[in-house]
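wait is this the right file?? whatever heres the structure
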């Protein structure tokens, strides 16, 4: 089969991008040809992938996204494929991977009447409707039950079009064995002693992931704990605003910002706690990576993957509505109780031994193949 994938931008460290890459590789390993449509590809290209760079046209993001959809539709007329799998909402998709929340639900909750009169709102709703309306035939891959609930509520999408995937992390990178192998070596490389606390936050879009919430919680720690903290924030974003905020809170010397890195498994093995107090997070693959690494987590309830942490007993889930004081207290109590951190870590590893947190790419490839075969059968008759 010739399977086409489309996403606006590929860079190596985004959660959506990593899911795309692993699904596309799973299809390629089954002998299928992979074509990728994107505005931009950062980093090394995957051997065997045909990457087609779509030109950018339009004065705004939503105008460029509309052009992206139209350009691909025109290009496919002369370069046909067997299926189009999208990681951004647009018309013409055979399968959509829902790496984001329901836009209609989000704006209903956060925006006022006048926002809904903007071209941006109309464009994004049109793209979402093209995927989820009852008139669409797009199959939908979701990461959490809440995503499915929101989309059905706003679009009345038939439930049989949804496919709930297991999490999908690389077992060769995230496991209890890797934690044992990496922890001491990585902490030594970072200059950490046995008494130091290494806190980690991983994810692009620092505002949405709640980095300033994390900084406030660290600044509120008792001095005896705070002076032992090293906090790394890793993600593709401009850190200027957060760096200034750390300076304002008086903790700048202990906070380090890094662009995407290849050694996240090693950093997770070395860390004592992952912070992820997100304002919005459709799923949060980093939470599952922490779970498989035996790394305790403090996250917010809005994270789609938060129920996995609750089920595993791996840390604290801060309920909504969010209160900064609750996060402050949770972080302080956790760091003052090393036995609790150890229990959370062990519970996470035991959970991953008993539950599937790895098969997302294979499940997605199964659904893609079935969609193509079903379409071929219908055409034959």
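ok assuming it is, sequence goes like this
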């Amino acid at each position: 089969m010739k399977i086409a994938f489309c996403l606006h931008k590929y860079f190596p460290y985004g959660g959506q991008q990593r899911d795309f890459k692993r699904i596309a590789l799973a299809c390629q390993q089954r002998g299928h040809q992979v074509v990728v449509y994107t505005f931009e590809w950062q980093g090394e290209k995957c051997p065997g992938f045909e990457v087609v760079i779509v030109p950018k046209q339009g004065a705004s993001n939503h105008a460029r996204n509309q052009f992206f959809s139209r350009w691909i539709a025109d290009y496919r007329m002369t370069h046909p494929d067997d299926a189009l799998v999208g990681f951004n909402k647009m018309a013409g998709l055979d399968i959509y991977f829902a790496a984001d929340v329901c836009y209609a639900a989000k704006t209903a909750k956060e925006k006022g009447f006048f926002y809904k009169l903007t071209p941006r709102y109309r464009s994004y709703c049109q793209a979402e409707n093209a995927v989820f309306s009852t008139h669409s035939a797009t199959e939908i891959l979701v990461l959490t039950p809440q995503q499915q609930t929101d989309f059905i509520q706003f679009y009345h999408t038939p439930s049989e079009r949804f496919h709930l995937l297991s999490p999908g992390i690389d077992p060769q990178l995230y496991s209890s064995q890797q934690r044992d192998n990496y922890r001491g070596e990585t902490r030594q490389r970072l200059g950490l002693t046995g008494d130091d606390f290494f806190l980690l936050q991983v994810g692009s879009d620092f505002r949405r992931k709640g980095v300033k919430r994390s900084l406030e919680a660290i600044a509120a720690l008792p001095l005896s704990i705070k002076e032992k903290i090293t906090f790394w924030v890793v993600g593709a974003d401009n850190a200027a605003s957060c760096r200034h905020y750390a300076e304002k809170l008086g903790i700048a010397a202990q906070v380090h910002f890094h662009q995407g890195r290849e050694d996240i498994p090693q950093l997770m093995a070395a860390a004592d706690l992952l912070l992820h107090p997100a304002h919005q997070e459709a799923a949060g693959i980093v939470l599952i990576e922490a779970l498989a690494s035996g790394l305790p987590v403090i996250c917010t309830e809005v994270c789609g993957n938060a129920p996995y942490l609750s089920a595993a007993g791996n840390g604290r889930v801060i309920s909504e509505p969010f209160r900064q004081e609750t996060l402050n207290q949770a972080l302080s109590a956790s760091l003052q109780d090393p036995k609790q951190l150890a229990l959370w870590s062990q519970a996470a590893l035991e959970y991953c031994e008993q539950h599937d947190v790895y098969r997302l790419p294979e499940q997605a490839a199964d659904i893609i193949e079935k969609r193509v075969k079903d379409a071929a059968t219908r055409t034959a008759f």
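The longest strand covers residues 33-38. so i think its the right one actually
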